[in-house]
User: Which sequence fits this backbone?
């Protein structure tokens, strides 16, 4: 599955078979990345949070949680969502690369 922006630029790619829930999480993650790229930060945050909260056991969840915090920050210029995101990742996905990336926000 490839998610392209209106100009045909790839924004997200998933290769291979995934169970339905994981596939839907990846699709929503791709659409969230597209919204983020288009500077629609409120929509991007909503979509990222949908993955983070609605598909919390999927492989896409830690990345979605990370980007939800970034989108919230970009929309407001308030760093508080970054710290909250880092805490959430440390608690829910402590071994993920996304928790390590967000650790600088603590």
Assistant:
């Amino acid at each position: 599955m490839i998610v392209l922006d209106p100009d045909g630029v790839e924004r997200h790619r998933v290769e291979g078979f995934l169970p339905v829930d994981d596939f839907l999480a990846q699709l929503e993650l791709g659409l969230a990345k597209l919204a983020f790229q288009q500077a629609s930060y409120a929509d991007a945050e909503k979509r990222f949070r949908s993955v983070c909260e609605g598909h919390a056991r999927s492989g896409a969840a830690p990345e979605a949680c990370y980007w939800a915090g970034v989108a919230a920050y970009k929309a407001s210029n308030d760093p508080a969502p970054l710290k909250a995101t880092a805490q959430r990742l440390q608690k829910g996905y402590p071994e993920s690369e996304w928790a390590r990336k967000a650790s600088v926000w603590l």
